[in-house]
Amino acid sequence: RMAQQKSFQRIGETVWAKMPRLNAEVFTLTYGSLVMQLLKDFDDVNLVNEQLEKMGHNIGVRLVDEFLAKSGIASCSNFRDTADAISKIAFKMFLGITPEVASWNKENNSFSLIFTENPLVDFVELPPKYLDLQYCNVLCGVIKGALEMVQLQVECKFIRDVLKGDDVTELRVELKGMVKNAMSEEYGEN
To answer: How far is 34 from 28, CA to CA, in rounded Å?
Structure first.
């Protein structure tokens, strides 16, 4: 298990070194502008939270191909390996950070990602009227979308958030089941 974690960490570092980079400040400010525009367009924090998750889902569906191609990992043998791949390879590869995997439940189907750093929240302060905003909800969507593409259905939500005064940001991921491959009727046997 420990060897697998070290292997994933090494893969994450290697892939991160090869990835083209966007200036972190430009990325952070662009994301902030996107969130502000959504707040103006929808004028309802709950709708903005939904939109951020939908956008993230669409990103995750597309990112998984790049992740699999560049990381070279074929598949994970269990959900613990999946969590480590998300933390040590995917987050490192695309955001340059490695959140800690923690708080496994006894069934090993739910864990937390603990973020001590998150480039999306640099320079951000939430005004009191936006305290219900899940500013980084795009991350939940990315995780859900990417895992869906590898046949895992998960629920993802924020438990703690530095933008709301917590010491770290905690994202909870829970495995809900396997995604069924549904072929359309035109491909079924007659």
So the answer is: 10
Closest by CA position to 173, among listed 141, 149, 134: 141
At 157-175, the pLDDT tens digits run 999 999 999 999 999 999 9
Question: What is the pLDDT, as a whole number, of residue 1?
Answer: 53
What is the arithmetic mean of pLDDT over 10-35? 66
Tokens of 99: 């959140």
* Under 8 Å between Cβ of 160 and 100: no
Residue with token string 């939940």: 140
Does pLDDT of 46 surpass 90? Answer: yes
Residues near 78 by Cβ (< 8 Å), separated by ≥ 6?
Answer: 108
Q: What span, in angstroms and rounded, lies between the C-alpha atoms of 98 and 13?
A: 10
Cα(117)–Cα(99) distance, integer angstroms: 8
Q: Give the Cα separation of 171 and 137 in Å (integer).
A: 10
E strand or H helix at 167: none
Q: Where are the alpha helices (DSSP H) in 19-103?
A: 24-42, 45-71, 79-84, 91-95
pTM as predicted: 0.83
